[in-house]
Amino acid sequence: MKRFYKLLTLCLLLVPVCLSGQTDSLRFSVKGVVRDARTGRILPEVGVSVPGTGYATVSNAEGTFIIKSDSPITQLSFSLIGYENLTQEAPVPAGAIMRVRLNAKSLTLDPSVVVSGNPEDLMRMAILKIEDNYPSEPELFDCFYRETVRKRQRFIYVSEAVTKMYKASFKDRFTMDRVSLVKSRLLTSPKVSDTLAVKVIGGPAMPVSLDLVKTKEMVLNEADLCFYHLDLLPPQAIDGRMQFVIKLTPAQTTDYALQHGVVYIDRETLAFTRIELSLDMSDELKATRAMLVKRPAGIRFKPKEMSLLINYKTEGGKSRQSYLKTVFRFDCDWRKRLFATDFTVVAESVVTNRFNGPDLPKIPRKEAFGERASLSDLTSVYSDPDFWQDYNIIEPTVGLEHAVGRLKSN
Questions:
Q1: Which of 118, 251, 270, 281 suits a disulfide with 129, CB 3.0-4.6 Å?
Q2: Is 216 left (phi over 0), alpha (psi -120 to 50) or beta?
Q3: 3-state secondary structure of 194
C-alpha cells in the first residue's frame, strides 16, 4: 500500500531528554513585518534572505520575521509567489522594526512566451530535467524546524530544533541524505487530558524524506501520473521568473488515497519551484491509512486534512529546497464519549544557511535522526530565554508566544 508520506513518526506522548549544540555566533539581527502594499494585509511565508550570503528565513503567520547574520546586515531581499521581488535597505538605527511592503505582480507576458500546451508533456519533461536542474555536488544545510500541536484552539505542544541536513549529489546513488539534531527544546501541556498517544507522520527529517523532486515520490513519477487529470492554469511569477502552473485532480480509483495539488514549473529551465498537495479525504479509510501510524485501542481517529507545501529556490543555476510545511487535522475521541476533539499538527522546516564543496563532512549514520524517531525523545525542556541567540529561526507568532507563556507557567 502506498502512503501519502512514507516517513517519520511524531508521537504526541512525550518523554523529554536533553540535547545541546553550538554554532558560530550570529551577533547581528533584523526584525520586521511584511504586508501587502495595497491592502496592508499581513503576508506569511515570505522568503527573507541576506544578499550575498546563505542566511535565510520566512515570515510567520503574523507576517513578522527575524533574521541573523555574523556580519552587519545592510540589505534584505524578499520574495513571495504573486508579488514582485524586493531588496530593501535594513533600518537605521539597528534594532528598529523593518516595515516591508510588497507589491502584487501585474502579469505581463512577452508575445513569444508559450503558455499553452499539454500539461502531461510538461510534467514529463520537467521530471526528465530533474538531474540537470538540481545540484550535482553534495551540500550541507543549516535548518530550523518547528512542530506545534493544538487541541481545538489551544496549543498543547511546541517543539523546535536546529538541524544539519546533508544532501548527496543527485547522481550519487549510494550516499544517504541525512539530518542530525544540533539543538532542540520543547514544551508540553502538563494536563493528563492533553496527553494523546497517537502517532502521525512528521519529524525533523521531513526535508529529506519529503524532497519529492529528489525522491520522485507521489505525483512526480511516471507510474502515478496516469492516476491524475492535469490542467494548465494561468501562469504565475516566482522570484521574478514565469512559471507553468499545473493543477492535479484524482482521475482514477486506487487502493490508496490520491492527491489534489498544484505544481509550479519554471518556464525556462523546467525546474520544479513549488509543490502544493492535499490528501483526498473522500474515502476516510484510505485517508486514515495514509495519516495514522499508531493509535491506542478504544480511540476513534477521523482524518480531516493532510497537506504539504514545498518551495524550491534557484541559486547559481541550480534549484534547492528552501521551505517545507505540513498540516495535519484530525478528530480523536474515546468510543464512549459524545463529542470528538479536534487536533491540528503543523510542522515547518526552513533552510537558514547553505554550504558546498568537495570536502563537506557527511552526517554519520549513528548521528542521523531516525525515520521512526520522535523529536521529543531527544529534546530538552524550554528554559533559557536566549536559547536561539546564535541561530536563525522562524519568528514565533503572537498566538504561539502566548501558548509558550501559558505552558511554561503551568
A1: 270
A2: left
A3: helix
